[in-house]
Amino acid sequence: MRITRPIRSGALLAVTAAVGFSLSTGTANAAIPPTSWNATGTTADVVGAHAWGTITPGPAAGTYVVHAAIKDTKADSHGARVNLRAACEGDCVSLVSVSTSGLDTTNSDDFTLKGPVTVQECLTEAGVDYICGEPYTITP
Question: What is the pTM of this model?
Answer without folding.
Answer: 0.77
